[in-house]
Amino acid sequence: MRRATRWAVGTTVGVLVCLGLGFGLVHGLEAADRAYPPPLAAAEVASREVLDADGQLLRAFATPDGLWRLKTEAGEVDPGFVRMLIAYEDRRFFEHGGIDTYALGRAAWQLITHGRIVSGASTLSMQVARLIEPRDGRSILAKLRQMARAVQIERRLSKAEILDLYLTHAPYGGNLEGVRSASLAYFGKEPRRLSVAEAALLVALPQSPEARRPDRFPEAAKASRQRVLGRDAVAALVGEGEAERAMLVAIPGQRRQLPALAAHLAEAALRKDPAGRIHRTTLKRSVQERLEGVASAATQRLPPKVSLAMLMADSSTGEIIAEVGSADYFDAGRSGWIDMTRTVRSPGSTLKPFIYGLGFEEGMVAQETIIEDRPSDFSGYRPRNFDMSYQGDVSIRQALQLSLNVPAVRLLDAVGPSRLMMRFRRAEVRPILPPGEAPGLAIGLGGVGMTLKDLVQLYAGLANQGWPVRLGDGIRDLPRRDADLPLLSTTAVWTITDILSDVLPPGGSPRLGLAYKTGTSYGYRDAWSVGYDGRYVLGVWVGRPDNAAVPGITGYGTAAPVLFEAFSRSGVPLSAHPSPPPGATRVAVTDLPIGLRRFAMTSSGLVRSTSREQAPQIIYPPEGARVDLGARSGTELSPLVLKLQGGRAPFRWLANGRPLAELSRKRISEWRPDGAGYSTLTVIDAMGRAATVRVFIE
């Protein structure tokens, strides 16, 4: 009885001692775990990414230590790759707590029986421990440390989180880390869908990333891929026949550059949020990529040091969907690092449609209203046309389509430069005037500073049927704001669009139905072209970033071909222009109200009333002129051009009292004299009013 009692007491004491020791050991391990946690915070460092509106990668930036490490989650990777990885690397990944004791025992037994390492026992958790806390050497102590870290990691993270860490940090040669980086570099695509051959290669490379790099050691890469496909567990997973077919697929022989689109906007996004890792934009990757291709090809046709910029926006949302600050960010010869979409330049003639829009809105002119294109003096300001010639009497429609300077200034003088600037402010565009100067007539011909983004924002108002559109900055932070006042009336906008959409595209360009306008700034410094359909607006600028002249560049000949090529290759669906609003239509000049048939100004600057039409006036040949038509050569005389203004069509011309063959509705006619000497020319309009001049033919 005493012996039993002593045994029971001894056993109890022993158990208590063991429990105490066990508690102390566990408590010690807990304390050590708290004192030396795994460096999980450092593992969160990854490449910063700039994404498009749909979440596609536009550009990635290397980590501070120069690594391409794109954060990856298992849900972003082909499930077949994940299953193959686990089957090859760690079949009991979801069962063990960081250390696979079965695999560890097997590896130890194989080492004892074979005298060498036959198979490893490293789990994915242990590999993650090694990746986030790399150490030199492969000693037993280092392996034990990995095992301890694996247990710590398992206690803190779920299996899914551990797998995500592996997919982000696995090495793939050079400065590539993670499955996404490797897939983009070797296959040129995201790893959402991988072939069996691609998945097997990505499983194989991290075991010896430098020695198996496909771009340097394709044979070694192929051999390692074959070993993965030859593993029984992998073959059973993908099917034996599929594994054999995958073995025949060629190894990628080069490393691609990771996406590097929208360089200027990407830099701006990082400056806006330096601490952020993900930066979302409103761009569309497919459109951005295509426009950058067009810009690159177009720049090769331009002189040295000449740059090119483009900006495309959706007028229905105000979102910028593509932005090309320069054709090549790294082209020092063309100052490619300068974002020319946000640089202030002279807009040339691109503001003229808004001058005519005010004239239409105020009822001063209609499309077929006649306006003079002749040398004129506006209180000392003497605008000249681009080609230094003049067309005489032209319709408003022709004046805008031909981008004539004098008619535009003549109309701006009537509507007022300040009113035009006020309309720009409605669109939240504030052109830059020379210091200390008030808005003057020169703004109609480009005498202000404006950016390409400003110009596209103005034209977006035309595409949006007259309502201002505030463009965002390309980064997702700007909600749409409804405007209080229109940029122009719907009828005025339709009239502008009707005129501009009828301008022929440059030679060789497709007819897309775009309404577009071109402009060339003073001194051939800037060439512009801006066009729009029923929804999208695209602006193109060509010039030198240093503002030097580029002889020969023009909006029509240089920028417009790029505009049409970019629009046609952008991939955006072309939208038809809106139908005309009630009351908007083309009206022949003879059907216009009398007051709209001719636009004229009084000496005081007021619009002259034409309710009582002027009598016809012969403006060429002038009274008493001597005109050389070749009489001295003895050959048939050349015809004499006759020009008039005023009056009401049809017109009857008489030469020396004899009527010419036909009535004419035109203000320009021809007469071939019978011989030299004095002749009397008379014109009679439909109301019986007449004008006469006497000329000498020689």
Sheet with the most strands?
5 strands, antiparallel
| Strand segment count | 20
Q: What is the radius of gyration computed over CA atoms, rounded to a whole number of angstroms?
A: 39 Å
* Spatial arrangement of strands, main beta sheet: 7-6-12-11-10
Low-confidence stretches: 3-28, 603-607
Query: Distance N terminus to C terminus?
Result: 158 Å
Write a short abstract of this structure.
The chain has 698 residues and is an alpha+beta fold.
Defining traits:
single chain; 698 residues; alpha+beta; five-stranded antiparallel sheet; five-stranded mixed sheet; 20 helices; elongated; disordered N terminus
Question: Can you characterise this structure?
Answer:
The protein is α+β, with helices and mostly antiparallel strands and 698 residues long. Helices cover 35% and strands 14% of the residues. The chain contains 20 helices and 20 strands. It has a 5-stranded antiparallel β-sheet, with helices on both faces. The longest helix is centred in the first third of the chain and has 34 residues, at 2-35. The chain is elongated, with a radius of gyration of 39 Å.
